[in-house]
Predict the 3D structure of the following.
Amino acid sequence: MTQEIADRRDIDFVLYEQLDIEQLFETEKYRDLNKKMVEMVVTEARAFGIKEVLPTHAEGDKAGVTFKNGEVIVPECYRRPYQLMVENEWTSLTEDPAVGGQGLPHMVMRAAYEYFIGAKELFLKKLYTGQWGGTMDLTEPEAGSDVGALITSARRLGDGIYAITGNKIYITNGEHDLTENIIHPVLARIEGAPAGSKGISIFIVPKIWVNDDGSLSEINDIICTGTEEKMGLHGSATCTMSMGSKGVCRGLLLGEENAGMKIMFNMMNEARLDVGFMGFCNATAAYLYAVNFARERIQGRDLADGKNAEAPSVPIIRHPDVRRMLLWMKAHVEGMRSFIYYVARCFDLAECAADEKERERNEDLIALLTSLIKSYCAERGFEVCIEAMQVHGGCGYTMDYPVEQLARDCKIASIFEGTDGIQAMDLLGRKLGMKKGAVFMDFMGEMKKTIEQAKGIDALKPLSMAMETAADQLGEWDGCCSGEPLSQSPSWRSWLATLKVRKKPKSLKRTKTQPSTTARSKVPATTSTPYCRWPWED
């Protein structure tokens, strides 16, 4: 059967074979969950994604958003899928049921959302259920990545209410007509607050003011003054927003004064994971489109019959160079899926941890890997989309085929929520040195365990040795622990001794190996279905 959007068998492999999600069913938090329920959620998500969401991609891209008289009108094709998503409660799979969520594991949420790429208590439930929309109003014309330079101001009005004045740009879904209300978290500086990022606070600014009983009141003075014309994501409203230009824009302080950056990063880090996920979802769809196209496109003779002018033409998936491209795409798509689900598993383990130490360990791993998820999956996702265009040949450069749109839509992922260069600065400046390098070493330990397991499989020995060499070289990185090489620090050397890691070999002889049925048959017996297969066997 032709796969669309995401490969179900690959998803199941990561969930059940690689990351063993069934371990979660033994915890107190997920004791009422079982494999049958998880499979039902993913199956329903796949059906909804293919039948309702997928048809909107091309139509929404062509129609785009319309801005008229201060209002943003989204493509008409979005209305039914959004209504069904809200009615069927797909908008908050992992949130607490007490605030309108489903209380499912993060791994299940990622599996379901592969098919969709498709605050204060007063606002939470309607945000989680999708009845209201939400944004993040951070960027200003003169304060993009340098958030501390923002000039939007907040003035105390009393009773915990502030008057917000300023302008924001590039606000995704800042205005639209899909929901009855939109809740804007807005960064602003209270009058008299310190300069720079230390003086920034964050405010809840609703499009329509919300009464204490949750009912809607009058329209607030936060208005959309225009929408951006973008390279991709034409159906997504990217808005310029003005606050306090026609009256008083009211907002409620979220958290404490001058704590806006800390609160914002809680939202930002989740958004960064979602952006990396977005890059991956575009990639997996592009890869599957390329596989299906290569199976159906008849062009050229088989290489073995190259000199036979009478030989019939064959599907291009028979050509070695096309197979090379498909295999490269498949390797990166599966690698990104494993990486993203691994971090989702860290979220689940942190929430189910039996003790504080285990919870903290998983939260540290999440913090370390967030920048990598965002930047790696954004970059590789775009490259996979470009390679999918290459498989399509000239067809891929036209709007008649979906990979052209996927490439346009995917490019923003390396820019969204902090460019990849900013992610690198965050990784080097903050994350690698967490707890004097202990968090990084813990992650390296997980890598070493996987390497040792791979060494026990003959077909994986060359890869495991190359991986070991790369890990050892990474371990020699200078400067993570007080400016000294990690290899010279007592904690690092003790850790290596515990794992019985060999010293980096002076040379690694490369062994040329060819994929074969024999090699692929040496996958561990615990795998219930053959996993290591080539794209042309799917």
